[in-house]
Design a protein that fits this description.
alpha/beta; Argininosuccinate synthetase, chain A, domain 2
Length: 323
């Protein structure tokens, strides 16, 4: 089997360092795969070029926005998926899709190893590795950040020593993950529960007091559990999420301050912004209150909770989840 490494590439510090580190420490070629999930920010072509500049022999960008919306976010809407009744699975939903495309890239580009940039403290290491084991048990998994105990300071030092082309700062207090379904912020001063989030934590949502005097009413049309219109105008699932992110976000809707139970056994405080997700899940839930008879509603709430827990725990490809 080929020794090429297929790396889940975000364009950030850790995965940029990983490209160079893997090449220098193991002598293996790296193929970087960046997945566009509607996260915004940098142009994906800039991200692709950075991967090449960091030493990747190939860099691939996959536009998975519609796939993510229709095959991952839509089932979450229909399952009213809120882990611990609050968290709309912002990061958890995206991981099985990333895994799928990494496995596809490994087959296409002759890779025998897949790599990710997760730490040993979070849920994502489990989500990635359980996903790989489910879809491609023949592939070896490399996790340099976790397995070699990288710290941010060590990664910055390596980047500076090896002239890796990425701008970083040791003072950034946040760890951020975002896609079209929402945005997650953790670490830094937010680890202390008495500390309220500051304005710079938020990006997808406006301060709720700013537009308090100018409310916005929106009508979401559903057809068999699928959002198909906004104020009577036809939309795709992706368009529905994007438009509600903008309109609900402008009203401060979708801000969540959550202490959640991670699957690795620790508690973690997370700040989430998910305006589109929360509007769609709330609207769908209310429709079910109107349309489902009592026993069916009770049963579905039980299965909805289990569905969310399975996705959170990285079991997207499990027999129970797919049943």
């Amino acid at each position: 089997m080929s020794e090429r490494v297929i790396l889940a590439y975000s364009g950030g510090l850790d995965t940029s360092v990983a490209i160079s580190w893997i090449g220098k420490e193991t002598g293996r070629e790296v193929v970087a795969v960046a997945i566009d999930l509607g996260q915004g920010g940098e142009d994906m072509e800039v991200v692709r070029q950075r991967a090449l500049d960091c030493g990747a022999v190939e860099a691939v960008v996959v536009d998975a926005r519609d796939e993510f919306a229709e095959q991952y976010c839509l089932p979450a809407i229909q399952s009213n998926a809120l882990y611990m009744d609050r968290y709309p699975l912002v990061s958890a939903l995206s991981r099985p899709l990333i895994v799928k495309h990494l496995v596809d890239a490994a087959r296409e580009h002759g890779g025998g190893i897949v790599a990710h940039g997760c730490t040993g403290k979070g849920n994502d290491q489990v989500r990635f590795e359980v996903g790989f084991a489910s879809l491609a048990p023949d592939l070896e998994v490399l996790a340099p950040v976790r397995d070699y105990a990288w710290t941010r300071e060590k990664a910055i030092a390596f980047a500076e020593e090896n002239a890796i082309p990425i701008n970083v700062t040791k003072r950034s207090p946040f760890s951020i993950d975002q896609n079209v379904w929402g945005r997650a912020v953790e670490t830094g001063f937010l680890e202390h529960l008495w500390n309220a989030p500051t304005k710079d934590v938020y990006d997808y949502t406006e301060d709720p007091t700013v537009n308090w005097s100018t409310p916005d009413e929106v009508i979401v049309g559903f057809d068999k559990g699928v959002p198909v219109s906004i104020d009577g105008n036809p939309v795709t699932v992706l368009q529905a999420i994007e438009q509600l992110n903008e309109r609900a976000g402008a009203q401060g809707v979708g801000r969540l301050d959550v202490v959640e139970d991670r699957l690795v056994g620790i508690k973690s405080r997370e700040i989430y912004e998910a305006p589109g997700a929360m509007v769609l899940i709330t609207a769908h839930t209310e429709l079910e209150h109107v349309t489902l008879e009592r026993e069916l509603g009770r049963f579905k709430r039980t299965t909805d909770q289990k569905w969310g827990e399975l996705v959170y725990d990285g079991l997207w490809y499990s027999p129970l989840k797919t049943a």
